[in-house]
Design goal:
This protein is α/β, with parallel strands linked by helices. It has 9 helices and 9 strands. The strands form 2 sheets. A 6-stranded mixed sheet has the order 2-3-1-4-5-6, sandwiched between helices. Strands 7-8-9 form a 3-stranded mixed sheet. The relative contact order is 0.16.
Length: about 325
């Protein structure tokens, strides 16, 4: 978020203690739908990345800033790692591995309910070649019978050098206190990289686009979500303190455009209303949101569209 926003201050017990500061980056990696974004939002105590029950929700690296016990923990929420097919997919996977490479520590999130899938095995094989310290968090443990957890943890620890294993439920905020304490204690000495009251490095224009995309993911059928992207075309500050934002939604086919618009514009209106309410709560100001839908075949192969998402074109 931009520095001109009135962001909430961290809770008193999470503000830095007197003495030397500590700061580090933790890359949160895993297969699609493992719960990475839910965990990042829960640890940050505020929404900094969009969440959806559909896989591959996050498309680029988002850094969330968490202050705890004198340490600044910068959580790097990465796209889910999967087998890429499109130019967009390749850019997303590259962003995920880039986030892991740049971090001081890697936190591997595994959906305990799904277990050791082929996608998880592929991630583990690549992480095994990394010199970075790795922690494991088995997520969604509230949905799994306890006797299944220890064998899964043991199998993953046998495949990979893991310093510590955490049993968590990001959605229920279970096991997160211990994880946060260990993160804070493990951060290397150094100055803070962000202001203490900053929540994320996500610019407001991109935040708006992501919130709109989240509503598309939640409110449309399977045919549309991963064939849609949102770009903020215009941001206009108004004298009354409100803001007008114009966004364009790009989809791959005319049929998807028709689905998104809905009968008499009902679907795009509902998407806009839900996004506007959430944005007003996040930005703490009145938001006038206008959405335009365009079909643009092959947008996910366009270098310009991929760069607009903040991704590096991998060719």
């Amino acid at each position: 978020m931009n520095e001109d926003q009135d962001l909430p201050h961290p809770p008193e017990d999470s503000r830095p203690a007197p003495g030397p500061t500590r700061c580090g980056l933790v890359a949160v990696v895993g297969a699609p739908n493992a719960g990475k974004s839910t965990l990042v939002n829960a640890l940050a105590g505020s929404k900094v990345t969009i969440v959806s029950p559909k896989p591959q929700t996050t498309r680029f690296r988002i850094r969330a800033v968490v202050m705890h016990a004198g340490a600044q923990i910068i959580l790097v929420d990465t796209p889910g790692i999967f087998q890429p097919r499109r130019r967009l997919d390749r850019a997303m996977v590259a962003a995920a591995w880039g986030g892991a490479q740049d971090a001081d520590r890697t936190l591997l999130i595994v959906d305990a309910r799904a277990g050791l899938t082929d996608a998880v095995r592929a991630i583990v094989e690549r992480l095994a070649k990394s010199p970075k310290p790795i922690w494991l968090a088995l997520n969604k443990v509230d949905l799994v019978e306890p006797p299944r957890l220890l064998p899964l943890a043991a199998e993953l620890n046998a495949m990979l050098t893991i310093e510590e294993t955490f049993m968590i439920s990001a959605e229920k905020s279970r096991g997160l206190d211990r994880l946060l304490e260990r993160m804070a204690a493990d951060m290397p000495p150094g100055p803070y990289l962000f202001p203490e009251d900053e929540l994320s490095d996500l610019p407001n224009r991109m935040l708006v686009a992501e919130i709109v995309r989240e509503q598309i993911l939640r409110q449309t059928h399977e045919e549309v979500p991963h064939h849609a992207t949102v770009e903020t075309e215009n941001w206009q500050e108004r004298k009354d303190g409100s803001v007008r934002v114009d966004c364009t939604i790009y989809v791959g086919r005319a049929t998807q455009k028709a689905i998104l618009i809905g009968d008499g514009g009902a679907k795009v209106k509902a998407i806009g209303q839900s996004a506007r309410r959430e944005l007003e709560a996040l930005l703490e100001r009145r938001v006038h949101l206008f959405l335009n839908v365009k079909d643009r075949p092959g947008w996910d192969e366009e270098r310009g569209r991929i760069r607009a998402l903040g991704l590096e074109d991998m060719g």
